[in-house]
Amino acid sequence: MNAEPAQHAQHAESAQRAEPAQHSTPRPETATRPETTTRKRTTDPAPTPAPVTVIGLGLMGSALATAFLDHGHPTTVWNRSPAKAGPLAGLGAQVAATPAEALAASGLVIACVLDYDALHTVLDPLAEAGGLAGKTLVNLTSGSPEQADAMAAWAAAHGADYLDGGIMTTPPGVGSPAMMFLYSGPEPVFGAHRAALAALGDPIHLGAAPGLASLYDSALLGLMWATFTGWLHGTALVTSGGTSAADFTRVALRWLTGAVSGFLTTYAPQVDAGRYPGDDATVDVQITAIGHLIHAAHARGIDTSLPELLRSAMESAAAAGHGSDSYASVIEVLRGTAAVR
Fold first, then answer.
1. Distance between CA atoms of residues 116 and 289, nearest Å
2. Which H or E element spans position 216?
3. Rounded to 5 degrees, what angle do the CA atoms 141, 143, 204 make?
4. Of 42, 150, 204, 299, which has fewest CB within 10 angstroms of its CB?
5. CA angle (149, 155, 158) in 5-degree steps
6. SS3 (DSSP) at 5
7. Whole-angstrom Cα distance, residue 90 to residue 74?
8. Which residue from 83, 86, 48, 96 is spatially nearest to 66, judged by alpha carbons?
9. Strand 75-78 relative to strand 180-184: parallel, antiparallel, unpaired?
10. How far apart are CA 188 and CA 242, in angstroms?
11. CA 308/CA 263 separation, integer angstroms
């Protein structure tokens, strides 16, 4: 075979293979390799934390101010006793000399003082002078729903937006996203300040009625105290036999978060509907069961007033015709609406 034609054929074949590589359009993944592009990704800048003023620096107020500072909010503080502001100043807070100076520093004003009388003592002179106009007042002072309603009307009369709040934690829990902070008032006002309020904990808006947060606060505290007392009674009963509180509590927590929470989920729609099908355990069955608790407590010298109180409510429900209904029917007794059927 002549070598020259073969050599030409090899050159031609190589040229045909190389030409498409030189002139073809690069594949998208080749064209956008990081080393060959000069474009930079752009992201929206993080919003600047809003300035906040905190009125009242007790244990809770100081915790609120600290949480705002921790999240980068320019924070102005004021307290009737200036010494309480010292630690916060060390963290970067601006300490206002007067309430008027504190209000002027921020559009968002958080109040957490002893009671509503104390709050009016601080804010009334400023409001009369127009110092609240255009501000948003978030009141975390404990009080009744009726006081919250009146405070909302007062704030509106002085040109301020108003949110009422309930703090569902103690000071050490402030700043944790696991802790609930309840708010009520106009939804647009809540929405405008939600990002700032999230510095304190998980912000939950309950509705437009100003008194809702206070009403929930009272109801949830009642639930807490009832749970505490029920747990303590059970602990007293079990530890009388030598079991430790820690051992009992491990079992109690599983009971509460499992079966008991399931009962609550089942009973809630029954309460809303006003119908209480006794297809799990009737009031009559519960009355028998609590009798065993009372007997066990009495035999061990444990106070029986709590279970006797509960049995009394059950017996009233049964007397009103709810003996074959679920335990949820006891709400008719608590509402004062139960009548013999």
1. 45
2. helix 212-239
3. 65
4. 42
5. 145
6. helix
7. 13
8. 86
9. unpaired
10. 56
11. 22
Question: How far is the C-alpha of 198 from the C-alpha of 188, rounded, in Å?
Answer: 16
C-beta atoms surrounding 235 within 10 Å:
17
pLDDT in tens, the chain (341 residues): 444 444 444 444 444 444 444 444 343 443 444 444 444 455 666 789 999 999 999 999 999 999 999 999 999 999 999 999 999 999 999 999 999 999 999 999 999 999 999 999 999 999 999 999 999 999 999 999 999 999 999 999 999 999 999 999 999 999 999 999 999 999 999 999 999 999 999 999 999 999 999 999 999 999 999 999 999 999 999 999 999 999 999 999 999 999 999 999 999 999 999 999 999 899 999 999 999 999 999 999 999 999 999 999 999 999 999 999 999 999 999 999 876 55
Q: Do the Cβ atoms of 190 and 205 come closer than 8 Å?
A: yes
Give the length of the chain.
Answer: 341
Tokens of 187: 């939804």
What tokens were used for 50? 């809003």
Q: What is the DSSP letter of 174?
A: T
C-alpha span between 13 and 85 (Å, rounded):
85
Q: Supply φ then ψ for residue 300, to 5 degrees.
A: -105, 10
Within a 10 A sphere around the Cβ of 30, how many other Cβ atoms?
9
From residue 73, alpha-carbon distances to 45, 167, 222, 298, 329 in Å are: 16, 20, 34, 57, 49
Q: Based on C-alpha coordinates, what's the Rg of the chain?
A: 33
pTM of the predicted protein model: 0.84
- DSSP state letter for 328: G
* Bridge partners, 242 (sequence order): none
Residue with tokens 């206070």: 214
